[in-house]
Specification:
Elements lengths: L10 H7 L3 H23 L4 H8 L3 H8 L8 H10 L12
Helix pairs in contact: 3-4
């Protein structure tokens, strides 16, 4: 019987071995951010259109920000969103 070389390995290790770890982590971070922003909109009783006005941008830009699959978000856009919600951004470079 052939032995499974991956048996007992961690998902993170598997994704790293397959060269997919960075992409998966980026998507997970964007999904967490999109969920947090959506919750803040709900908590503040704001529509996407109202958020766009506060950010001085288009509703389409807010839609992209709330789209968990769209990882192309700039720091400038995040800054506008944070300020519109009375928040700040905290970014950290952690060891790999």
């Amino acid at each position: 019987m052939k032995r499974n070389a991956r048996r007992g390995s961690k998902l993170r290790g598997f994704l790293k071995d397959e060269g997919m770890l960075a992409e998966v982590e980026e998507r997970a971070m964007k999904q967490a951010l999109a969920l947090q922003l959506a919750q803040l909109l709900k908590d503040n009783d704001l529509t996407k259109a109202e958020m766009a006005v506060r950010m001085r941008t288009s509703r389409a830009a807010v839609d992209r920000l709330l789209d968990a699959s769209n990882t192309a978000v700039t720091l400038a856009t995040l800054g506008k969103a944070a300020r519109a919600l009375g928040r700040t951004i905290k970014i950290e470079l952690a060891p790999a």
